[in-house]
Amino acid sequence: MNRKKDKGFESPRKSVIGFVELTIFPTVVNLNRIKLNSKQCRIYRVRVNDLEAPFIYNDPTLEVCHHESKQRNLNYFSSAYTAAVSAVDPDAGHGELVIKVPSELWKQGDEMNVLKVYIEFSLDQPKGGLHFVVPDVEGNFYSLGCLGWPSVFWFPCVDSYSELCTWKLEFTVDASMVAVSCGDLVETVYTHDMRKKTFHYVLPIPTAASNISLSVGPFEILVDPYMHEVTHFCLPQLLPLLKHSMSYLHEIFEFYEEILTCRYPYSCFKTVFVDEAYVQVSSYASMSIFSTNLLHSAMIIDQTPLTRQCLAQALAQQFFGCFISRMSWADEWVLKGISGYIYGLYLKKTFGVNQYRHWIKEELDKMVEYELKMGGVLLHPTFGGGKDKDNPTPHLHFSIKHPHTLSWKYYKMFQCKAHLVMRLIENRISMEFMLQVFNKLLSLASTASSQKYQSHMWSQMLVSTHSFLKSISNVSGKDIGPLIKQWVDQSAVVKFFGSFAFNRKRNVLELEIRQDYTSSGTQKYVGPIKVTVQELDGSFNHTLQIEENSLKHDIPCHSKSRRNKKKKIPLMNGEEVDMDLSAMDADSPLLWIRIDPDMSILRKVEFEQADFMWQYQLRYERDVVAQEESILALEKFPTPASRLALTDILEQDQCFYKVRQGACFCLAKIANSMMSTWTGPPAMKSLFTRMFCCKSCPNIVKTNNFISFQSYFLQKTMPVAMAQLRDIQNLCPKDVLNFILDLIKYNDNRKNKFSDNYYRAELIDALTNSLTPAISISNEVRTVDNLNGDVRLILEEITRSLNMEKLLPSYRNTITVSCLRAIRMLQKNGHIPSDPSLFKSYAEYGHFVDVRVAALEAVVDYTRVDRSSVELQWLLNMVQNDPAHYIRHKILSMLGKNPPFTKAAESPLCNEALVDQLWKLMNSGTSHDWRLRCDAVNLYYTLFGLTRPSCLPLPELGLVLNLKEKKAVLNPTIKPEQGPDTTQMTGNTMVSSVSMSSGVAPPPQGLKRKLDSVVGPLGSSPPEPGQVLQEEDSSKTLKIREDEIDMESPHDSQAFIHHHLNILERPSTPGKEPPAVDQAVLSLPVTPLPSFSKESTSSSKHSGDHHHHHHHHEHKKKKKKKHKHKHKHKHESKDKERDSHTFSNSPASGRSVRSPSMSD
């Protein structure tokens, strides 16, 4: 299929008017329905081959559980949300927009002719998808298409990564603007009055709609001097920064093209830097959108590697993610894994092996911690089959069936695990084969992409788990089945505990490796494990087989205990060193032991060895991972020997800078443990003086010179670590504090070619670290006058820095950020009165994003410590109203990390109003932004857990009427686990359940809102089949009986709606009110209809006719008198509708009536 799109922009109103033309090649005979995805677009008109076509628009995710529902448990919400998302899931052939192909064209479908679908739509003040940033400057406006999964939010399409098509894109914007989109810019045409211009883009490579993007703004344009097919765009006045930041992009291109032995797949590449970006990097076909905060000048040190890493990630995703797409959501891990893996290779080449191994260790630790806490990340979920199969991750409070139901943190960990698993595969088959597999995938895809449309050909551009594994076995001839089974098809990590003894008689090392595979997030590992033993005669690798739980392994030693004292000791990397062996055990030749040194298992290892072994490992092992492990271990051994080992590392210039940074903090901890026996000046002080201070006057620091980045990072970190030192009274030693204040006082950056803003910010962090709780004298009022002298010095310093920042802001406002943290620490330690007003003013929209986040963090913390409901309310209002999406996301995730209370403890903050507010937020307030919705779900889970919140009153007893057996049953039990409420979750909302067998004609829209209330008065228990549902607003009562509904079997998606489409013969055109009948139909949320038991299928057939008012009489007989009044309502409301509904509420406006409308 191919697509053509037109868009016009109106800036002041934040609206978009558009037109989509799809060319569809039917693959089935009698194609009479076309389902598309579209969120928040108002659809005016649909034509198929120039014939008007009727359509139904309905988005069940706008409101997950209908609002009068008294349900408040998360189990219930999660299943309802999953059902709503599945109901419009394009991979299953569903969509929010259902178009009925006019019957005249059915014959054409038989002959397999092409259908052309034309859709006219508009977007008014979109809440998500397209984000408008309108500064206060006159005449300047820019809009950015920058939400994750964007396309479905700003034009109707098939929002699936597996539906590829070619594109023609046209955008009409203000003459002062530039529209950047995917593909090649063919031409730019001005309108007659020269006030607008149209950009025409063509993308000949088949691409999924989800990889199409748009950015409009008054951009400055830079053509890359090294590669003319690459263009960079940034906001006005940032061009010098853009030039510098992009100066090495061509190297990343060359690197990827070289290792993949494959050209960059598109004919051009565009980088766009935008304000208020949703994420730092988002990649689309032939373009990537970045946050403008990544740009930096040549003076900035710390940002440079971060920006390069973002560029490298974006470019890796161009190959795998944009050009090669995925078959289904279950195959996402392959793309994320490959792009993360080749990005790692770039890191290794550019930043060196040390940085690469450090990054792998960091990612592994992060992921292992998450899995042990949350209970596992599953890369390749399979659904269907038995009961367990339908939810492969019962330990999570969200479903992983669909990307939009995942928590953001889980998705981050998912990407992290994916690239770690790719590295495991590389360990197994070798890097050479790995790169051959990637090359094969890319060359097949590029052959396919150049073909004219043939559906089977283009499928080569999609990767699936199966095809990926198949090409691995074809290329390498190795079977990696067990590895995939262990890490991809099941979640959880491995937890090892190791200890050893040396048997001198046999000269054997007896190693014991135990596993914990019972606690959450762990699994049992069976297979090979590598152990490296460093002995006097060299380093030896042994591969052990792990079989049962607790296992002792005997490893023969190669060297006898030290016979020859003078010999040099060979290390792993081949160098030979002199060691002082006096510390080691005289009987044993072992220097140190490492389990799984290459991190070739996703594991956590806790290994016990003597302190001298850790010290040797720190000093002489050349692998940074080993050094970092030993630093962590030495915290438990506060001895002079440990102190010496750490100090030696700090002084070693050839040691990796991150290891030395870690050694600083470890040294501070050891010093605090050795407080009583510590001799000499405070830890690190003499070292710092020697390295960075003047020879003649040791308390004055030299003028800054950051030419050596290694020593710059050390100079930045040492004061922060020193500030953690404490004396006997648990205060920061006076000379350390004065030393830090002197560093700030004498800091001189005049001769430095680099900015010192990060260094100054770290010095303020050091002041923060030196704070200790105030000693309060009873009933003394805290004022600035009675402040402790040291604290007053700190406070003055912070105030001065904060005021200086207002005059001379630093890059990214790093100093303001540190000052805000410092002020919060002063408050928490009781030195100054606790007050959130300063933070609230810094958190307002308009400040730089980092400042806002730091200020909000302080408010979140204040909310928890002071249990302040006012601040909590203020934060939640911000979540609902802040213009910046990233900030909303941040507030919810910070509340989740540092919650005002948790489900375990009682708290005055936990009340019904809060439950309702959060419920409303996740239920209908965040339908435009799935990340925000999942954040809200996470917060709800943290505060209230899975079941009904404890602060809610107990639900009343419900009465269940079973009309069939004519008896009433009391239903006092609340069963949140029972299948979710069918009325809401799976029926076509009310209509289907109403009509199931009592045959009540559902009233049209006038009564619609009241009907929503027909959802369980039973508080948290889903209505059982056949329960009386109360209608709250209406004085009359509507009784409904539902048949037993089989929740397990797969849903027959929309039989119900098909039935209605037959009635909708008249097209709804803009300006003409469609008949009231359609009105009621159009407002139905499309959720899949479960397959009913036999008797109810017949009744659901009637339900179709209920909408057709000619059928009333036949139902009256069935209903006897009881329901007669319903019809009255029905007719009255019909007349009302005709008058009162203005066009804006017409069904064509793309609103489901029951949901809060988009633009209200």
UniProtKB/TrEMBL annotation:
Residues 1142-1160 have a biased composition (Polar residues). Keywords: Nucleus, Transcription, Transcription regulation. Residues 611-969 form the Transcription initiation factor TFIID subunit 2 TPR repeats domain. Its main location: nucleus. It is found in: Nucleus. PANTHER family: TRANSCRIPTION INITIATION FACTOR TFIID, TRANSCRIPTION INITIATION FACTOR TFIID SUBUNIT 2. It holds the Pfam family TPR_TAF2_C. It comes from Hucho hucho. One of its GO terms (molecular function) is chromatin binding. Belongs to the TAF2 family. This is Transcription initiation factor TFIID subunit 2. GO terms for cellular component: transcription factor TFIID complex. Residues 1132-1141 have a biased composition (Basic and acidic residues). It comes from the Eukaryota. Residues 993-1034, 1087-1160 are annotated as: Disordered. Residues 492-609 form the Transcription initiation factor TFIID subunit 2 Ig-like domain. SUPFAM superfamilies: ARM repeat, Leukotriene A4 hydrolase N-terminal domain, Metalloproteases ('zincins'), catalytic domain. GO terms for biological process: RNA polymerase II preinitiation complex assembly. Gene3D superfamilies: Neutral Protease Domain 2, tricorn interacting facor f3 domain. The keyword ATP-binding does not apply.
